[in-house]
Request: fold
Amino acid sequence: MPSEPITPGAMLLRGFVLPLGSAFAEAIDTIAGAAPFRHMTTPGGFTMSVAMTNCGPLGWVSDRTGYRYEPCDPVSGRPWPEMPAGFLALARAAAAEAGFADFDPDACLINRYQPGAKMSLHQDKDERDFSQPIVSVSLGLPAVFLFGGETRKDPTLRLPLEHGDVVVFGGAARLRYHGVMPLKPGQHPRLGACRINLTFRRAC
Ligand code: SIN
Ligand code: FE2
Reply:
């Protein structure tokens, strides 16, 4: 598979998860059956346009009190669904391909974008250990990923991401600002009118 360096520490692995076929989509349906997608509230009181759920030992949550990782889904009070073994294997393989050996994620945030949904520029910094990378898998409709610098005002690269692409960022790129432009309407054969992003992290 072709891979494209983005900046030092960041790599785009085109089509990295395509060999898995629709296994991902089926696993996501199962997870969302147990822990449905929901629109979380930001500490500032806004409702996020992206709907989210999680799998794995820890899940990322946001509400009026802040951002954090929680072992249980606040909606059901139950532990987040298990991270499927195939997800873990894939995340580790992608990290290794990008030069990060021994990635050991304990959290997988699943983002669902419907047309118009976007993610504002932000840093992933709610994790304890920045030595481990972020592995971000794109499925479904294409989107434009924004990859910036270490301050919000730095210029951003615009990377078109398609079904099956994986972005890995760690090391010197671990705290780069990033975001997603508003999703354009469309229809994906397996995932329908949405984009799904899986973000693997070592949270704790
Ligand atoms: C995120 O930064 O959590 C999501 C990135 C993406 O959807 O590609
Ligand atoms: Fe992020």
The chain has two helices and 13 strands.
